[in-house]
Amino acid sequence: MREGPLIRDDFVPIPTRKGLGSSDPSRCNMNAAAWTSPSITISHLCSTQRTGLFYIQSKSWASKMSLENRAAFLDGPRQRLRVGPASIGKPNAAEILVKNHAVAINPIDGITQDLGLFVQQWPAILGHDIAGEVVEVGEGVTQFEPGARVTAHALGLVTGKPEHWGFQAYTVVQAHAAASIPPSMSYEDAAVIPLAFSTAVGGLYQDGFLGLRLPQQTGERTGQTLLVWSGSSSVGSAVIQLAVASGLEVIATASPRNFDHCKSLGASAVFDYADENVVERLATRLQSCSVLGAFDAFGTEESTRKVAEILSRIGGGFIATAGQAPEELPNNVRVKQMLAALVPGTDVGKALWKYLPAALASGQYKPAPRANVIGEGLDSIQTGIDRLKQGVSASKIVVKL
């Protein structure tokens, strides 16, 4: 699929032979009347090597064009995904319509498929992570225009509307939950970002959680340390990068083969989570640190208990997690669970999503872990869900559309 603008303002794309069309009428030796004339023909094309499209300025013509949508539907719990035609949403105020070029698979997708959790109507569409091209913007949207390349957090879990879910050709996205991506970044890499980013933001910056200061460009350190359990996971990779950008030292856990991955993102030390003495080793390492708290990116009761025991040994503390907190915890440890889908709509969520484009452009924030492209087309999403259930390490399952 060609990357680049599909529709710009009210210009209608018309396919032509490569090298014959211009994406901008100002680049052609034609007057304005020619561009608005309904009788314009292929002979009016001007020469350029940049694109295989040219554009006619005609709102009436554009209004007659139709986009065809398809989606991967879930008809009920424990059913296989079914691909079929779907209605296409129109962006309202503060929303954008994105043509998806890649989607990523998350554990919640498989859980929802198995149990029907969070489904408000059947058939349902799933999917949280998308990357693609803006084709239409709603009223009041100024940070994007048609043709923009974006990564976005699909928030169907919040709205309950089918058009806001990710596993389809076109998704309506709240503009505050989207970020422009650099020209050099592939859609497949960009698709790994959204849900993990929102989850990390929720635990690190929201009031009532760890309460970090916002990321800094200066590199100024706070002198505080954060423990990140499962640093090579999608959420852990996001947490490490954001915490380091906010001036913290990060100490993480991972499997030995993923130590370098965590260190490449900014972790100063990494411990083997499977080591039978990991609790004792981490408590010893953290004893001399000013520990702000911990982020359990794995999010199981077992992992949270281990993190809680570590903090309890050094005087207690706070744990942010996306998982369910155990019922029994040490008295000096507090755990709080966040719902990532609610984060982009908060003030701090909007601030961090606004921060993301510049961070991606500068390299302060990188898509991590690596994208593992499992297939192409909506039919491959079920394959991706099945593959994720088998387990992955320092990678994220992505489907190219």
Fold and architecture overview:
By secondary structure, this protein is α/β, with parallel strands linked by helices. It folds into three domains: 11-64, no CATH class; 69-193 and 367-400, Quinone Oxidoreductase, Chain A, domain 1 (Alpha-Beta Complex), CATH 3.90.180.10; 198-342, NAD(P)-binding Rossmann-like Domain (Rossmann fold), CATH 3.40.50.720. Helices cover 26% and strands 25% of the residues. The protein has twelve helices and 18 strands. The strands form four sheets. Strands 5, 7, 8, 9, 10, 17 and 18 form a seven-stranded mixed sheet that branches. Helix 6 (194-205) packs across helix 11 (347-362). The longest helix has 16 residues, at 347-362. It is globular, with a radius of gyration of 23 Å. InterPro entries: ADH-like_C, ADH-like_N, ER, GroES-like_sf, NAD(P)-bd_dom_sf, Trans-enoyl_RdTase-like. Residues 76-399 form the Enoyl reductase (ER) domain.
What keywords describe this structure?
401 residues; alpha/beta; Quinone Oxidoreductase, Chain A, domain 1; Rossmann fold; 3 domains; 7-stranded mixed sheet; 12 helices; globular; Trans-enoyl_RdTase-like; oxidoreductase activity, acting on NAD(P)H; oxidoreductase; NAD(P)-bd_dom_sf
